[in-house]
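Second opinion, please. Pick holes in both lines of this record:
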Amino acid sequence: MSRTKATRPARGRARTSGGTSGAGAASANGRRPAVDLSVRIGPLALRNPILTASGTFGYGDEYAHVVDLRAIGGVITKTVTAKPRAGNPPVRIAETPSGMLNSIGLENVGLERYVREKLPKLRSLGATVIVSVGGETARELETLVDALGEAPDVAGFEINFSCPNVAKGGARYWAVPRRLEKTMKRLRPLTKRALIAKLSPDVTSVGDLARACEDGGADAVTAVNTFVGMAIDLDHLRHRLNRTNGGLSGPAIKPLALARCHEAARAVKIPVLGSGGVMNGRDALEFLALGAAAVQVGTLSFVRPRGAMEVLEEMSAWLAAHGWRSIAAFRGCMLHGAPGTDPAPAPRVP
């Protein structure tokens, strides 16, 4: 004899008129109720959790003709350094199965031109701007945050502790918890804006790095940057990039990125921004279910320039169709296991 298991609506989900969980629930006028997508990252309030990943969206204005920058949660700019950088010589991009290798090397216009040319454009477009900054030493990072720390056009900073494509000040140098903690403590007094530490996945424990950043005063961490990878041209017996290695991104890394994001979310109380292989709204929701507070869209913007908006639209539609009233209620529903199999997740600090 078959048995059916009685269910009750999950916390934060809407009921239909019949009293069951509101998958596909609609209001009396036939429209699904709007989902509250707002999130908070330390002092930074975002209209929704969809951000563009640094290095995949230019400085932001390059995509403004296809993406309404006011509609997405925010733009994380191309990493800015104190002095202009030419980056690595070509070839710097190589396609791989289900992914992409890059070895750009933090090419950028430098702090002076960024302030003079790039920030005013983003301000005119109404974007919420999170500036990615990179440096070979803690002193260089201090220079950048100090110069931009109270700029009215800057909502926050993502500190790039994890670039795999530079010889100095890259992922290996910053993969030391004590160094991260000490650096964050030096940056924290320089700004009241949100400070987000972007972590490398190629470490023994992302959780240890996340805790170090939290102890140093970070408002959030990003898990994760690209994975170190390699591709060769067998017919010509040469590497497909000018450098031997590059950073692997795209859908191939999503399972790995999910695991790092989950580890970080369980290790700290500050918000975690999930990043790695997000190609649609369902991918974004997987990161959010595992505890991410927000999600970054990266390689997808190369494939479909309007990708960030598509992710936002698909995510919103799924939440509404499944009866979720807010992203806050959905966030972390699988942080401690599948719903109904483990104790409810412990409350998280917003």
Summary: The chain has one domain: 39-330.
